[in-house]
Amino acid sequence: MKNPAKVQEQPLSSTPQACLVAFHDAIYAQAELEAKSSMFEMVSPLEQRDDHDAIISTAQDALRAVGYTEAEQIAVSLVMLLEVKQLSLDQLAKVFGEDIANLVETSRAIGESGNVDDWYASLEKFARMPSNCQTLRMALLLGVGERGIESCSPHEFWYEEALALPNAHPSLRQRVIARLEENLIG
What we know:
There is one protein chain. This protein is mostly helical and 186 residues long. It contains 9 helices and no strands. The protein has helices spanning 16-36, 45-65, 70-81, 89-96, 98-107, 116-128, 131-147, 155-163, 170-185. Residues 1-13 have low confidence and may be disordered.
């Protein structure tokens, strides 16, 4: 019998968005199973999904509004999915093709979340990325900024990341930086 939580390595559907939804479902199910066997998991992946989906929706809407392609909208969703489970370039390429997998790989952060050295290395990497990848990161910052409005959100880190993306789409960059400055001051 097939394990339903196993990540599919074949195209899941004829439409990219249907494939993306099915892939997300499989990754969240797999991550949830892994979390249940971990002694240290505090917030389950499924408990985070509503927030992640809202961030992705905002990011995809922002990309669509500035004329980015469906491939880039899918890639931004997959970059966010890396917060749930690490995925290899090969895994992504088998399901979404080389172009999307390369966008995700180029846009992903370095190392582990919460590691200061990795964070600074990621900022350096982000500053050298192509403008479309910088725009993917900026769209995610818009999403997390709009979703994470409570006072304990790491606005100063998001602000630093936004400043490290000088070649992101100009109007999106301006919008994100203004929003983060508002949150930092207010």
